[in-house]
Amino acid sequence: MQTLKRTLATLAVFAVSAVSATAVTAQSKAPDFSGQWELNPTKSDFGPMAQQAPTKGTLTITQTASSLKYSQAITTPMGDQTNSQEFPLDGTDHTATGMDGQPATSSAKVDGEAVVVNTKMQREGADITMASRWTLSPDGKVLTIDRQIGTPMGPLTMKLVYDKK
Length: 165
Prior knowledge:
This protein is mainly beta.
């Protein structure tokens, strides 16, 4: 159970398998998340996983009309972790490897001024789902990811706030 909680904490906070991919189609007006971002732990809400939440995190995003590429580095009580991914932005299911080395399948779509990414994965025999809603502040200097996570232990809600460097 402790291992599952640790896995959920890592995945819930920074499940950078396909969960962090944002979708933008050529005709959409989705925000451009390109740039360097720094996690703001004091403005973020890690919910029940606060004890294992990152104390530091950076996210570098390059976004084009057809893809999103990012690299991420975080520091948590469990140690440092890094990951890089590139995703197509066509809204189809995409399977990628997360920080824990396990696969996750995501699809993403533009929803007004936001991007919604839905992810499904299985960890230690448990089905986990995540719905992440990415938004930018009006001045483009704050990236907020509101995340709803479905786990066998019940639903979790988190809010990750990043400041543009």
